[in-house]
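Sequence in, structure out. Go.
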Amino acid sequence: MVAILSDKREFIFKAVADMYTDVATHPEKTFHFPTGRLACLFVGYPGEQLDLIPAAAPESFAGVGYPFAAGAIRAGDVILDVGSGSGTDALISSTLTGPQGKVYGLDMTQAMLEKLRRNVAAMGAQNVVPLEGNAEEIPLADASVDVITSNGVLNLVPDKPRAFAEIARVLKPGGRVQISDISLAKPVSDKSRSDPKLWAECVVGAVVEDDYVAKLRAAGLDVEVLSRFDYFAGSASADTRRVAQGLGAHTIVMRGAKG
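Output:
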């Protein structure tokens, strides 16, 4: 894996934030990756589950799978959604944990956080707390969370071991994870991985599936892959489909627990 210098990391974060600001503020646009309610249905969300939350949440959905297939959430859980975006997964999580639980929605993109706040207010979801930050520096105390959920976000993080260590840090002993993300069959070249603009494309930040799982386990998270899915088959961009096919890019849905 190519080393990412601090200034390069900042450019990567900016490129990602710019892309998802566009998704938040212009949900009617066609992007190179699937978005919106149709994307939710494409990756496996039941329509009746989407009907429980404000329509403005899934309209800016940019996840890559259905992490709730892992069945990790129980009533009363404290949940952290890493990369909550406009709130689709955070708000669904709030219905699963119930009024005795709590959901933190963590995102670094201001436009997404603002949209999340509006959706929380529209739903009256008093157990959802928006948080500004990123996966490499989670602003929560050690052992404060029962469940981590994340959807199509960790592939965008430059320092994955650091992010995985942060996830393990904030999880309680025995805490659970449910993750949907992009992984690869073939590694990306160092040249491509060092280009900040390409990180927002959802492919070059991803790593080979076995490496992804190994990094999670090294952080103390015992995970298993539940399913795989050809997410980029839903892309409107022929170039994106071609690049993804060449690298064997695909969605994996995982569940696991902190040892």
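Check: The chain has one domain: 6-258. The mean pLDDT is 91.
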